[in-house]
Amino acid sequence: MTKLRLFALLLALVPALGLAAGPGPALEHSGTDLSDKASLQRGAGLYMNYCASCHALSMHRYSRIASDLDLPPELVEQHLMPSHAKIGENIHTGINAGDGDAWLGKAPPDLSLTSRARLGGPDYIYSYLKGFYIDEARPMGWNNTVFPGASMPNVLWELQGIQRPVYDQGADGQSHLTRLELASPGRLSPQEFDRVARDISAFLQYVAEPAALKRESVGVWVILFLVFFTFIAYLLKLEFWRDVH
Ligand code: HEC
């Protein structure tokens, strides 16, 4: 490829990059940490309790969760799986797409890859879980700042409490939703609820790319190998050039 064509190709990619960084709802930083096994374990428990009844993770197996998150298979069988499921099975949900459509107005999507598919990744899920507020105009009584008009009810409201929108008048004379305030507190403090949202986001981040757990530990060895190899290459160079003056 000539340099000119390469340059043209790179130039053609620029708008795509611009789009990827395009405007969207402001997301909160989730602070997920894939090396924090305890957080991933808590996230798995919360997910199976509060989300798995509607959302499948069909690209992931229960057994993989057990081995990746250092959980004994018996514990996963007893606490994280529906009684009819087998540990080697993929994570399906009881609700089928037709029922989801009929009951909720929208079938709950499979979340296997959501953390990778959405801009912001775990920050998107974190902000979404924190972004529910009451809105009588919506069929379920809930709306969401990150995903306006979402058909999902706030399944974590007992933990979080109920948030109400606060509107301010903008420069254009229209009223804008500027923030959410806690109208009635839940079982958890806001800090504790942030941790719940962070743990679930971390779990879904891991599910979307299980190899990321391994990659970070392999990375260190790759760097060490490269440093070592550079040293060998340097010795080799000294050897080759020894007789050349
Ligand atoms: C009662 C069923 C139900 C439960 C339980 C539920 N959801 Fe949902 N969820 C939905 C529906 C329906 C949608 C689709 C919303 C839409 O497209 O309007 C959705 C959408 C989502 C999305 C947005 C997906 C996207 O493509 O942007 C995420 C993320 C999500 N749910 C996460 C969760 C998490 C995490 C939990 C557990 C804390 C959970 N959901 C529990 C029904 C549910």
From TrEMBL:
It holds the Pfam family Cytochrom_C1. The chain crosses the membrane at residues 218-236. The keyword Transmembrane helix applies. Residues 38-204 form the Cytochrome c domain. GO terms for cellular component: membrane. It comes from Arenimonas caeni. One of its GO terms (molecular function) is metal ion binding. Its cofactor is heme c. Residues 1-20 form the signal peptide. Heme c binds at residues 51, 54-55. It comes from the Bacteria. The keyword Protein biosynthesis does not apply. Binds 1 heme c group covalently per subunit. Keywords: Heme, Iron, Membrane, Metal-binding, Signal, Transmembrane, Transmembrane helix. This is Cytochrome c1. It is found in: Membrane.
